[in-house]
Amino acid sequence: MSRKRKIEIFIAGCYLCDEVVKLVKDITCEFCEVIIYNLNNEGKDKANAYGIASVPTVVVDGKIADCCRQGKVSKSELMAAGLGQPIS
User: Fold this and answer.
1) CA of 73: how far to CAs of 16, 41, 45, 54, 88, in Å?
2) Is residue 71 within 8 Å of residue 16, measured between CB atoms?
3) Is 0.85 topped by the overall pTM?
4) Which of 4, 17, 27 lies closest to 68 in space, CA to CA?
5) pLDDT in the model for residue 2
6) CA 85 – CA 88 distance, rounded (Å)
7) Cα(5)–Cα(65) distance, rounded to whole angstroms?
8) Which of 1, 36, 64, 66 is the one with CA 20 to 30 A from 23?
9) How many C-alpha atoms does 57 have within 13 Å on its Cβ side?
10) What's the pLDDT tens digit per position in 18-59?
11) Which helix (H) or strand (E) holds 7?
12) CATH class of residue range 5-80
């Protein structure tokens, strides 16, 4: 049995953040647990622990997705990070 992949999305309530939330939800599967932190209300300590400096940022199994370090969030890079796939 596979365990769930943990997907954390850090947002600030802007339209760019909403687009990333939709993108992630579109490509996740039943093997993905998605947690959304709106930094206006929650998750600031967790964001600091990850070293998040901008939003939106997607963290997959405790690691910031490469596309989130470089600018625009990319569907192909999120999928390469494991979204939509069980952990073996």
Assistant:
1) 10, 22, 22, 12, 25
2) no
3) no
4) 17
5) 67
6) 9
7) 13
8) 1
9) 22
10) 999 999 999 998 889 999 999 999 999 999 999 998 899 999
11) strand 5-11
12) alpha beta
